[in-house]
């Protein structure tokens, strides 16, 4: 019997890496359902190769896809649409594993649906956890979902925690002897830029990450360090720790993917070449191991590992995220929504790179914070924060 996998966001960078890992293990996994938002040509290629049972696309793309399926004689693949379709495949009875790899807030409801259906959920879509934090973690406990981090840092932390960590976390008594989480950051493509230089960087430069090949949004987030800010919040929820136990360490080589320090003076790290196939394979098979094509780390080639503290003057996004986590409630939702709007505006060249954190700061100061009591309040706040961020972008000339 093979395990049935649903890949939300199959045409993206994580989606494609997931397929790459699955292709090597057809005896263990089958691709049951996939979703895509655009790039139907790519989706068609994937469908020809993997023959999923169900595909989800936006409603306005469904007709075109149906015609393509007819031409290719793929008439047995069911086409569902929009959020309802995404939720349907995420919670589908026949699905064992859900890869949550949609980018941004659009992934929240399907990811939560997978968690509530008690699936093994491989979490790449960090924005969904940033927005819904306690609700998502509580749902995982209540419905017996296995929420496993795919984000390389969180996967590294997970690998560096004690083997009984998950049980301890579930019983609410984690006596793990952990003293600090060291969350590593590459520093992005502008690590050594001056503030003046940062003002003029282009979307193309921002999307060129030195170590990782990723989607546009996370590439810009890596360049502003907002990605590390979102990851700080992600770590607090995943590992039930408060933000002051998380230290961000800039490590430009991206060889150590994060570390856990213990009260006895031990520091455990997970290392490897920067390739998302490793954390994806780990989360797919945990507690077993799956073979991948990622070459073993050659420390003689690496030779040097460097570490430095993040510069929060040139990269204020990290502090904004820390403040939002500290404030709690709906502040992380506001941070995330305003950041998504600001990154989109930067990619369209409506605002400059250094204005991204300014827009986020403005939204944090101008959206009323409250308890994140339920998903409706979170979604409503996401919408308000987007409106405020968009209006501010117009006001500052974007
Ligand atoms: P990407 O832009 O390459 O792919 C995004 C996927 O989501 C695509 O399949 C796209 O069709 C789909 N999508 C986009 N907007 C959508 C919408 N409104 N509704 C439904 N589907 C939509 O992004 P990525 O780099 O693969 O990142 C995906 C997620 O994984 C992000 O949350 C990112 O932060 C996280 N992540 C990525 C990496 C990486 O190396 N790429 C590493 C860690 C975490
Ligand atoms: Mg990461």
Name some characteristics of this structure:
398 residues, alpha/beta, globular, 11 strands, EC 1.1.1.267, binds magnesium ion, binds nicotinamide-adenine-dinucleotide, 48% helix, NADP
Detailed description of the structure:
This protein has 398 residues and is α/β, with parallel strands linked by helices. It has 18 helices and 11 strands. It has a 7-stranded parallel β-sheet, with helices on both faces. Strand 2 (29-35), helix 2 (40-50) and strand 3 (54-57) form a beta-alpha-beta unit. Helix 11 crosses helix 16 (331-347). The longest helix is centred in the C-terminal third of the chain and has 21 residues, at 375-395. The structure holds nicotinamide-adenine-dinucleotide (NAD) and magnesium ion (MG). Nicotinamide-adenine-dinucleotide is lined by residues 9-15, 36-38, 101-103, 106, 124-127, 151, 212, 214-215, 217-218, 276. This is 1-deoxy-D-xylulose 5-phosphate reductoisomerase. 1-deoxy-D-xylulose 5-phosphate binds at residues 126, 152-153, 186, 209, 222, 227-228, 231. Residues 5-133 form the 1-deoxy-D-xylulose 5-phosphate reductoisomerase N-terminal domain.
Rounded mean pLDDT score: 96
| β-sheet strand percentage | 5-15%
Bound molecules: nicotinamide-adenine-dinucleotide, magnesium ion
Strand order of the largest sheet: 4-3-2-1-5-6-7
State the shape: globular
Main sheet overview? 7 strands, parallel
Say how many strands there are: 11
The helix count comes to: 18
GO molecular function: 1-deoxy-D-xylulose-5-phosphate reductoisomerase activity
InterPro entries: DXP_reductoisomerase, DXP_reductoisomerase_C, DXP_reductoisomerase_N, DXPR_C, DXPR_C_sf, NAD(P)-bd_dom_sf
Domain 1-deoxy-D-xylulose 5-phosphate reductoisomerase N-terminal: 5-133
Organism: Acinetobacter junii
